[in-house]
Specification:
The protein is of the alpha/beta class and 461 residues long. The chain has 3 domains: 121 residues, Rossmann fold; 144 residues, GAF domain (Beta-Lactamase, 2-Layer Sandwich); 161 residues, Reverse transcriptase/Diguanylate cyclase domain (Alpha-Beta Plaits, 2-Layer Sandwich), CATH 3.30.70.270. Helix content is 47%, strand content 21%. The protein is built from 16 helices and 17 strands. A 5-stranded parallel β-sheet has the order 2-1-3-4-5. Helix 5 links the parallel strand 4 and strand 5. Helix 6 packs antiparallel against helix 7 and helix 6 runs parallel beside helix 11. It is elongated.
Amino acid sequence: MGNILLIDNGSSYVRSYKTSLGSKGGRITSVKGIKGALSRLKDADIQLIIIDSSMSAACSGSKAFQALSLSFPKIILLNRDVSKKEVNAWLKSDLAFPLKEQLTFTELVHWIKKLALYSSAKKENEALKVELAQKSRESALHDYARNILSSDANVGTMIRDILHALKTMTSAGASSLLISDEPFFEMLKLSNSSMIRKQVFKKGQGIAGLVMEKNMALNIKDAQHDKRFDIKADSYRQKKVRAMMCVPLVIHERIVGIIRLIHLNRIKVFSDDDMILLKHASHYVALAVERAFLYEKLKNDELTNLYNMRYIRQAIDMEIERSRRFNSVFSLIFMDMDNFKKVNDRYGHLVGSRVIVEIAWLLQQNVRKLDIVSRYGGDEFVIILPQTSRMVGFQVAERLRRIVEKNQFLKNESYSIRLTASFGVATYPDNAKRKEDLLRLADNAMYSGKFLTKNIVYEAK
């Protein structure tokens, strides 16, 4: 039964039940008055509060008692002539049960057991609400970040938008990215701002330096009084940093900076759930930086301005890592134009090149911004479909097949060339878990369809 706190003036009849309750595993701790009750409420082992009629009015009228006892189930023993106002004061609390009849020992045991079950169910319900609220926050962050990554914004804007969303979702006073002196940051031209700051880190200097050196996440409740706090490494715009949470920014297994959340209010602290959101945001910031860097480094296919195959191989690695981390899937489409050699033979290579450009445009117009379209070489194309199942990947490929079949290429140049294409679809992790296997299976599926009939979508087996 646990520990029962009895609040009375020293003469409650419940005191006579102490021995009997003890034989059933219960223990009564008696206190007189509000002051004694407030000191005992800080004990973690209290399971139930019993308030004698002599202390009912004092307890219901004490804001301090009401605040501290909010989560405890309470039995209030009232006199028959108690006022309606006093009864109503207790009825406002979900865990308070005012009783006017004197309880026998058997009745008291019944109520204790009943309230224990009720309290347990309520706590489970509250825990479920908290868990669902956290899942909702995580889902909202994932959706928002994915939309940002699929936009046409530059990498600096993407990072600031993700950090701003993180700040809003955690009710933080500030969020920021501290980046080290890495050459690729110069290539990306990330300028200093309140949210993005370039900083030369010394190993172990301040909380930021420690996070980078040890590759660890830290949740600091009181940064100003933490011995690791360093004014140069950990300050924020000449304002007092109260609570702070930091995670490393990792790209290709290298720590290149830290992302942090800050509370300027001394009362607020960050929760473990906030840390989960921060780690997710760090992943998306790393993805934005990595994609932008690869784009600048590898450049695009000169003819179509699509991504080239060097980029697509890196992008598949990133999608595999993201799918592993978030337990998701993605699909890969191989596409090859049917009998394209006849176009070059009949109209010449210059016309053939213009047709390739139109095919590239057609593909880009008919997939999501989130999807990655690349030219594999010649008249072959590869498309990555993030967060896309095997069935949906097949449907996308079939839709593209019909679009190509119905299109009249170079119609505005009076050619009106008709073409078809064959497609192969493979999905991670359904068909393969390695990049090389995924590419090979999608390629083989495309050639299988091409060998059978052409103008077909074929799934990897």
